[in-house]
UniProtKB/TrEMBL annotation:
GO terms for molecular function: 3'-5' DNA helicase activity; ATP binding; ATP hydrolysis activity; DNA binding. This is ATP-dependent DNA helicase UvrD2. It comes from Streptomyces chartreusis NRRL 3882. The gene is uvrD2_1. Residues 588-599 have a biased composition (Low complexity). GO terms for cellular component: cytosol; DNA helicase complex. PROSITE patterns: HRDC, UVRD_HELICASE_ATP_BIND, UVRD_HELICASE_CTER.
Length: 731
């Protein structure tokens, strides 16, 4: 699945190098004609960065300044690489290599393995989890499914940051990572994982980069052979480069400077995988003579959407924020973003589904609508809500279009018709390419009208309908085209993973939506605890969550809906509040200083050993005011929460339930009622504040010196996600 675009699907190839430059704005044209020396393109969301760099490559090729086979363009997803290849083909620059870092490295490693190492290359495994599970079994460490996933992520982070098992613990501490297990245990699992791979003669995706780097470092003859092949490099999404990928790029370049990088520090949302914008931000330091071009003309979104996006970044902090780009919309005005508050999550999903149904009934194509959420777990509620109102949908990140069984069968049928169609009576009345395709696919389940509902039958029909629509566009763009021509087009698209548009509302996580765009975007679950996510503790993590919301906002071309729910389920406590990122931006709100749970290092600040009784003194309190609306509080319960009962809460519900379970255990141990440990109100206040040290915990009404000394360590450990259970001192 790719987002629909408004450009012609099959444009005419420009007839000259100068024609390649037609339609570019002044900054894009400057990028396209800057073919010598290092070039850094700082490109905001929707500013046409892919257009600029593909036209740069095509202009160089068409002008005879670049040989297609000498150019290597690298990006981060197969979809983005496929889109780049497709655009270059349309510009008359076929033959340029556009690949992901892994794909380019794998190709080189496979070619040079016999010469560099000898023998056959080990098998590449595409999933690590089973190997990690086997490593855990060898270490006699039990991991549940969630822990398996988290440990696997830690191993991947270690490898892309070039951290060996022995160095994992100090490296993780230096990076401020919240490790899912004890760092020494993860280091043990990491080492065992590497042993399992060696025993089975397999390698993983990170090994592809590591081994390619090793070969190029150790074998200068091979490095020179690669450099003789590739002399010009383009790197898209440069803010997402990891230290390992940067090292590989440096080895490809050697001592040359024919490099063009493109990126936006404000769209750095993958730091948990080892990505860092530092290479982009430091580019001019490493290359003092670089040409730097800023793209800020936003051709995607209306001024109203751009205004909200700029407002989000205006409140940002940190190095990436210091280099933010102020976007300027080039589109006509549109509707203001819509903000909606719901009582609970099912009501929020139903409300979004109703609005989507109304939009589709009013003529908005389903493929031009997306529902974006923070976590994949939120998807199910929206799948059900859309199904209930008869709206077809598709899950972003699910099975690739050309891998779907019905698409594979349809491709076989079309290929057969192209070869032997003259003997097929089914095609006797088909007078042109679109009618031939409709006739062939009718035997595979396509019908002129879609089936009712939105289940598997509807999904299969949508896939076939996408092929029918593609045939219609292909026939219009290329009169006289045959089934054989269409089959060749499908083969090229399958190789590039350039899928046709499927008519269904897109459901996607914010991370998987990057690089896509729609006319209408619903950003759902924009509440504290979800945006920013509850485990984002440090300043850096909070700012990455802000950038993630920025990416979501900038996916919308015309209409943007933001919503949140006050409780998780019907009848639940209405204790949630809208995301702090919207403070001062949504109607009726005021800008506030975002609360950060910890300093830049995160974690828990422990006292000096032996000073358990030296907790901070009580501070003299001024009259209590609601931290949401500012009203003076007089009710004891409200004073404990520091907010009015009817004001929205930013309580972490998961943390609250953990605290309740811990309190029940403490009450059982001491033989006293649960409220004698902490009252419900105090636990709610703790869950809302999520204190990081004794000073913050001591300020919460209901936490006295005695309880701070008795329970403080446990409570702070629970808030930090580091509580392991066990006895509590009862003196």
């Amino acid at each position: 699945m790719t987002a629909a675009t408004h450009s012609t699907l099959f444009p005419q190839v420009p007839d000259s190098a100068d024609a390649v430059l037609d339609g570019l704005d002044p900054e894009q044209r400057e990028v396209a004609t800057a073919l010598h020396g290092p070039v850094c393109v700082l490109a905001g969301a929707g500013t046409g960065k892919t257009r600029a760099i593909t036209h740069r490559i095509a202009y160089g090729v068409r002008a005879g300044l670049l040989q297609p086979s000498s150019v290597l363009a690298v990006t981060f997803t197969n979809r983005a690489a496929g889109e780049m290849r497709g655009r270059l083909r349309q510009l008359g620059a076929a033959g340029v290599q556009a690949r992901t870092f892994h794909s380019a490295a794998l190709r080189q490693l496979q070619y040079f393995w016999p010469k560099a190492i000898g023998g056959s290359m080990p098998r590449l495994v595409d999933r690590k989890i089973q190997l990690v599970a086997d490593a855990a079994a060898a270490c006699r460490i039990r991991l549940d499914r969630g822990e398996l996933r988290d440990v696997t992520a830690e191993i991947e982070w270690s490898k892309v940051t070039q951290t060996v098992p022995a160095d994992y613990a100090p490296a993780a501490a230096k990076a401020g990572r919240e490790t899912p297990r004890d760092p020494a245990e993860i280091a043990q699992l990491y080492a065992a994982y590497e042993d399992v791979k060696r025993e089975r003669s397999v390698i993983d995706f990170e090994d592809v980069l590591l081994l390619t780097v090793a070969v190029l470092q150790d074998r200068h003859d091979i490095a020179e052979q690669v450099r003789a092949q590739y002399q010009h490099f383009v790197v898209d999404e440069y803010q997402d480069v990891s230290p390992l990928q940067q090292r590989l790029l440096e080895l490809w370049l050697g001592d040359r400077d024919s490099l063009c990088v493109v990126g936006d520090a404000s769209q750095t949302i993958y730091s948990f995988t080892g990505a860092t914008p530092d290479h982009l931000l430091d580019f001019r330091t490493r290359h003092p003579g670089a040409t730097v071009v800023k793209l800020v003309r936003d051709y995607r979104s209306t001024p109203q959407v751009v205004h909200l996006a700029n407002g989000l970044l205006a409140q940002a902090k940190g190095r990436a924020a210091d280099h933010r780009l102020e976007l300027v919309s080039q589109r006509a005005p549109g509707p203001e973003p819509v903000y909606t508050e719901y009582t609970d999550e099912p009501a929020e999903a139903e409300g979004a589904a109703r609005r989507i149904r109304e939009l589709i009934d009013a003529g908005v194509p389903a493929a031009e609508i997306a529902v974006l959420f923070r976590t994949n777990a939120q998807s199910e509620t929206y799948e059900q809500a859309l199904a209930d109102v008869g709206v077809p949908y598709q899950l972003r990140g699910a099975e690739r279009f050309f891998d779907r069984p019905e698409v594979r069968k349809a491709s076989v049928a079309l290929r057969g018709a192209a070869r032997f169609g003259g003997n097929d009576s089914l095609l006797d009345d088909a007078v042109d390419l679109p009618s031939q395709v409709r006739a062939v696919l009718s035997g595979e389940g396509w019908t002129p009208r879609p089936p009712a509902g939105s289940g598997a039958v509807r999904e299969r029909w949508e896939s076939l309908a996408a092929l029918v629509n593609l045939a219609q566009d292909f026939g219009t763009a290329k009169p006289g085209a045959t089934l054989t021509d269409l089959v060749a087009e499908l083969d090229e698209r399958a190789n590039a993973q350039h899928a046709p548009t499927v008519q269904g509302v897109t459901l996607a996580s914010l991370h998987s939506a990057k690089g896509l765009e729609w006319d209408v975007v619903f950003l759902v679950g924009v509440a504290e605890g979800m945006m920013p996510i509850t485990y984002a503790k440090t300043d850096e993590q909070i700012e990455e969550e802000r950038r993630l919301l920025y990416v979501g906002v900038t996916r919308a071309r015309e209409r943007l809906h933001l919503s949140w729910a006050l409780s998780r389920s019907p009848g639940g406590r209405a204790n949630r509040r809208p995301s702090r990122f919207l403070d001062g931006l949504r109607p009726g709100s005021t800008a506030t200083t975002a609360r950060t749970a910890a300093g830049s290092t995160g974690g828990i600040e422990r006292g000096i050993p032996g000073t358990r009784g030296s907790a901070p003194r009580r501070v003299q309190r001024t009259p209590a005011r609601c931290r949401v609306c500012g009203r003076t509080l007089t009710d004891a319960g409200e004073m404990k929460l520091m907010r009015c009962d009817d004001c929205p809460s930013d309580m972490n519900e998961g943390l609250y339930e953990q605290l309740r379970e811990w309190r029940a255990d403490q009450a059982r141990r001491s033989g006293q009622p649960a409220f004698c440990v902490f009252t419900d109100r105090t636990l709610m206040a703790i869950a809302e504040t999520a204190p990081d040290d004794e000073h913050e915990l001591a300020r919460i009404p209901g936490v006295g010196m005695r309880k701070l000394n008795r329970y403080g360590a446990d409570v702070l450990a629970i808030c930090a996600g580091q509580y392991a259970g066990g006895d509590t001192d009862q003196d």
